[in-house]
Design brief:
The protein is mostly helical. The chain has helices at residues 15-26, 28-39, 45-52, 56-65, 70-73. The protein is built from five helices and no strands. The N and C termini lie far apart (50 Å). The mean pLDDT is 77.
């Protein structure tokens, strides 16, 4: 079998990981909701991780992409 360089093959062990990454970025409405919920002050990072089924780094990445500096969110 020939592997293509630079592209994930369907049988690649990383294919499911790449699909999850694309899925996590796919819904801007969920990202906006995550930002809104965190800005309300009612939800911790751990709460958001559980509610959106994402990791800590993903929560911080979404917040930072929304234009918030990381330090102010790390409480």
């Amino acid at each position: 079998m020939t592997r293509r360089v630079g592209r994930a093959c369907d049988d690649s062990p990383d294919a499911p990981l790449q699909a999850r990454r694309q899925e996590a970025q796919a819904d801007p409405r969920q990202q906006a909701e995550l930002v809104r919920m965190r800005a309300s002050g009612e939800y911790s990072i751990a709460d958001l991780m559980e509610m959106f089924s994402v990791g800590r780094a993903t929560v911080y990445r979404v917040l930072e992409r929304a234009g918030h500096d990381g330090a102010s969110w790390r409480t």
